[in-house]
Design brief:
4-stranded antiparallel sheet; 5-stranded parallel sheet; single chain; alpha/beta
Length: about 400
């Protein structure tokens, strides 16, 4: 009998575990400023989509300013231009700050009307006017369209024998048409309603009137906006107390799937000066090595990076030395052009290779016996072993 581990020189025993590290540090993100123009499909009693979004952003370690002064119950976008009753206050709000985004949400039926001439005159034309005003004040501001959801049983007031599915498709067409015309982004809340119902036909996202959002519908809306604005899954973030953790997780996953699986469809970073823009890294790397981050975008842009442990840097290619497990995760980058316009958020997810400790099953074995070694289980790990001979 002999102590095999002491007799053999195990100088080369190494186990590499590929750690797919989750988010473990606050992301010191660049602050977003948003003007929200809408009605009761944005705030309905306690079901406050902007407030839900703010709470989610805070729980992710970020900050956001949302001006909700232009969320006016029962309002239409054509009431905010020309001689409309809300024109002056809407114009004042647009020019009151340098907004990253102005969210436009139309009355819940108009984009789904069958009369396309009426849709153009009462929805598209006011949007064009508002977009001109927004760009005249700050050409860098993006208009983001809030694609709302269909009524639970369709819009039978305007379309006899209508259904949710039919109304939702028309809303999709209505919002996507003007978004494509103006080359502006979309927050596809209604499309997330559609996906949630496909996955769980028994889920109820409407309040008792079968039109407005209930707590689940409002939270799903906020999840979609978070994923769209931050290009990041909302899984694991804040949720209201009247929603169970299981319900919250389902809605978070639906929002992530609808938004992040098809960013191009929702006009993500479509401004020509920011294309192509596909950031990358040399991840995965070993602990203690240098992490290199590359914007892979046009050379005439400035790139601002933020990441775990208050990382902040500027450059098309930036580095972080002596990386530890606390410094991997999600890195955010935004490009800025010569006019000061910023791109939408892009992300790079990084991983670290960490040395794992060996736990011999037995340090004493007989000659000819089998040596058994084990290491701690690491989720999603791949193990590579080496040793004498």
């Amino acid at each position: 009998m002999k102590n095999v581990l002491s007799a053999l020189k195990f100088n080369c025993w190494v186990v590499w575990a590929v750690l797919f590290s989750g988010w473990c540090a606050n992301l010191n993100a660049q602050h977003l400023k948003i003007l929200w123009i809408g009605n009761s499909f944005s705030i309905y009693g306690p079901y406050n989509v902007p407030q839900y979004l703010s709470n989610m952003v805070a729980s992710d370690g970020n900050t956001i300013t949302i001006n909700t002064s232009q969320i006016i119950m029962g309002s239409h976008l054509d009431e905010r231009v020309g001689s409309g009753p809300y024109t002056s206050q809407t114009s004042a709000a647009i020019t009151s700050d340098q907004w990253d985004y102005v969210i436009l949400q139309e009355q819940s039926q108009k984009p789904a009307w069958l009369n396309l001439t009426a849709v153009n005159n009462e929805f598209y034309e006011p949007v064009r006017i508002l977009n001109q005003q927004i760009k005249a004040h700050n050409p860098c501001t993006r208009v983001m369209f809030y694609m709302t959801w269909g009524y639970r049983y369709g819009d039978n007031m305007n379309v006899p024998n209508d259904t949710y599915t039919g109304m939702q498709q028309r809303l999709y067409n209505g919002y996507m048409n003007i978004a494509e015309e103006l080359n502006e982004p979309v927050s596809p809340v209604g499309w997330a309603f559609r996906r949630a119902l496909q996955l769980n036909p028994n889920i109820v996202l409407w309040d008792a009137d079968n039109r407005h959002q209930n707590a689940l519908g409002a939270y799903l809306s906020a999840c979609v906006f978070f994923a769209r604005l931050y290009n990041k899954s909302p899984v694991g973030l804040w949720h209201p107390a009247d929603i169970t953790p299981q319900q919250a997780l389902f809605l978070q996953q639906v929002a992530a799937e609808v938004v992040l699986n098809d960013l191009e469809l929702w006009n993500h970073n479509t401004r020509p000066q920011f294309s192509p823009f596909n950031p990358s890294s040399n991840s995965p790397i070993c602990s203690g090595q240098t992490l290199h981050l590359s914007a892979n975008g046009p050379a005439n842009l400035t790139y601002h990076w933020t990441g775990p442990n208050n990382f902040a840097a500027t450059g098309a290619t930036v580095s972080r030395n002596n990386v530890t497990s606390a410094e991997v995760g999600s890195y955010m980058v935004r490009a800025m052009d010569s006019q000061g316009c910023r791109s939408e958020i892009e992300r790079v997810n990084t991983q670290i290779l960490t040395t794992a400790s060996i736990e011999p099953v037995s340090t004493i074995v007989c000659v000819g016996d089998t040596i058994r070694l084990k290491t701690a289980t690491v989720p999603n790990a791949v193990y590579f072993w080496s040793g004498p001979n």
